[in-house]
Amino acid sequence: MLEQACTGVAEEFIGRLAPIKGNGESQFEALMQICAEIYVAAGAVAVADKENGQTLFNHEPRATKGGKNPEFEFRYKGTWIAVEVKTPKMLEFERQRSKNDWQLPARSEMVNAIKGEKTLPRDNPVKDFLASAEAKFSEYKLHRPDAWRLLAIVWTDHVQEPVSSLLSPHSGLLTANSFLKDENGNAVLFPNVDGVILYRQLHILRLSAAKELAPLTPFVYARKAFPPKVIIANPHGRPIDDAVHEALDLTPIEDVSMWAEYIPSELILWINTTQKTASAENGKVEARAANPRKDGIGRARETSDRRLSKIGRNELCPCGSGKKFKKCCWLLIK
Predict the structure, then answer these.
(1) Whether residues 189 and 284 fall in one domain
(2) CA neighbor of 102 nearest in space, from 304, 288, 236
(3) 285 is in which domain, residue-wise?
(4) pLDDT tens track for 125-138
């Protein structure tokens, strides 16, 4: 589909794949970056406008020869949209997370309050992704100034990690309290990035590459499906048009605030996997967390209470869907 839409794009991807030799973790994660780009690009190609039989999709569009460029651009219902796709290296981080009970998804004073081993925020890749996208889009807008400019981050199912990196009221990169400061101590802004899309797809790509997932559909850009493809508007960018949401099947993060993973987290306590499994088999799920209660984009009220909740299968799901737990999030946990 991509080659039909943009002649030569398949050759470009093959050219990037060819130098990846061996079967180590670094090679595997390089492969996942390319797979993520194909996944997002395929979703754009499927809905792109056509003129005279030509799909209006361009891979690596540039304002000047040799200049910086986003991954691709496409036109949807007359609106041009440019997308930069990024995927973090996660394998080593996930090993650390699996060993530690406590995780801090965002930077805060809690880091000093938790004694012993803890998993620190995975926010540096998100910072680097924003900085890279800002640099690329600042040049790209000379090529097509009216196009929407989006950063797409393909993460694992632990989407609370990039959400917290971006929106934590203490240090979120898209907030006034961003941990990234300029020489004057002010939060670094990214005005050329209109929004950040978060895809929970990296683990699907991995399982498919390892032939552990059937049916193998890692590149199918499923629409109106769970999990949602969430977009976080950059308060320093332009307000995003509804056509952009429609083009890539995006859901504003404000519309999924009933799901805990889309609320910036200050602290997470992971329950031992064996205990969790035994508890689930008894029809109960045990979890403990300290999350700020969301009060609008980029704002939150802190809560210091750490709740220990046990949810029966026939009780209402805590996600707020209105369904019984056994017909909602219980299915995901099971």
Answers:
(1) no
(2) 288
(3) 272-334
(4) 999 999 999 999 99
